[in-house]
Amino acid sequence: MRYLLECEVVENDEVAPEQFRMRINAPELSRTAIAGQFCMLQVAEGLSPFLRRPMCFERIQRDHVSILYKAEGEGTRLLSKMRPGTTLNVQGPLGNGFPIDDSFERHIIVSGGIGVATFPALAEAIVRKCDVAPEVILAARSKHLILCADEFRELGCKVYIATDDGSAGEKLFASQMLEKLRPNPSCRVYVCGPMIMMKTTSDVAMAAGADCVVSLEAQMACGDGACLGCVVESKSEKEGEKMVRVCLDGPVFDTTMIDWAAHNMAYDR
Ligand SMILES: Cc1cc2nc3c(=O)[nH]c(=O)nc-3n(C[C@H](O)[C@H](O)[C@H](O)COP(=O)(O)OP(=O)(O)OC[C@H]3O[C@@H](n4cnc5c(N)ncnc54)[C@H](O)[C@@H]3O)c2cc1C
Ligand code: FES
């Protein structure tokens, strides 16, 4: 079930430099959305900016959902200025969520930067369904960009921090930290972050024989499968095409489906 909803912004706070958490009152969404899905937000009335902006659900709670976002362009800056009480038009839930399978002994979440935004809801869902807390790698360029560590710990997760500059945790990349955790075929690894980080982390997971899913990002227009604005190269053919739509076929994919070599790693954050 998909909705086009007028939702009230309940909170919209800067939680780190240029990073915001918005909580919105959306009972219909919170009843139907699952971890890994996303919504399209209308960031302004009128024609500019014309396109909605895609955001995944950070938490899905009774009557509310939250999103965690980085203000980096016109749309997200407008979003960051919305005060509590503002009405926000939200389309969703969209896309496919994360698969959750309790036959895996270990679940390892690997996030890069703001890619963490999709994972608190996933960690909560894994704890609920599998009765085991995932291990969580939070990787970022620097200490001030590490988000949600306390939220994961409250869910019982063991958190490993990796920073490029060594200002918090270990001076490692996400993929190197995953190697240290020694994934094996009884693990499922969940990855979201910059493209290059997702590729290198997937390589480590696959070399260890672990199952690996990635949550991809792409520029989106319709969010609903119609415009083909969000296609990425795939390794498998679907309806004669070697392309998949991030909005409709994803955003969560088995990493073996993605043709990483064909991907434009320059589109990175
Ligand atoms: C399914 C999905 C879920 C997402 N969830 C989140 C989330 O939870 N939190 C969050 O902070 N961001 C998320 N994003 C990315 C977010 O949608 C973009 O950052 C946002 O649309 C940029 O809009 P803007 O107007 O601020 O920037 P623009 O002015 O449009 O662009 C500013 C910069 O951001 C880059 N950019 C634009 N759109 C995207 C995009 N879709 N992905 C990556 N980079 C982009 C541009 O290349 C440019 O460098 C998600 C994207 C997708 C596809
Ligand atoms: S955004 Fe239009 S097809 Fe995906």
Can you offer a commentary on this structure?
With 269 residues, this protein is an alpha/beta fold. It folds into 2 domains: 3-94, Elongation Factor Tu (Ef-tu), domain 3 (Beta Barrel), CATH 2.40.30; 106-216 and 251-262, Nucleotide-binding domain of ferredoxin-NADP reductase (FNR) module (Rossmann fold). Helix content is 19%, strand content 35%. It contains 6 helices and 15 strands. The protein has helices spanning 27-32, 74-80, 119-130, 149-154, 174-180, 195-207; strands at residues 3-16, 19-25, 38-42, 53-56, 59-61, 64-70, 87-94, 106-112, 135-140, 158-163, 187-192, 211-215, 231-238, 241-245, 252-254. Strands 4-3-7-1-2-6-5 form a 7-stranded antiparallel beta sheet. A 6-stranded mixed beta sheet has the order 10-9-8-11-12-15, sandwiched between helices. A two-stranded antiparallel ribbon has the order 13-14. Helix 5 (174-180) packs parallel to helix 6. The longest helix is centred in the C-terminal third of the chain and has 13 residues, at 195-207. The chain is globular. The two termini are 31 Å apart. Residues 220-223, 225-230, 245, 247 line the site of FE2/S2 (inorganic) cluster.
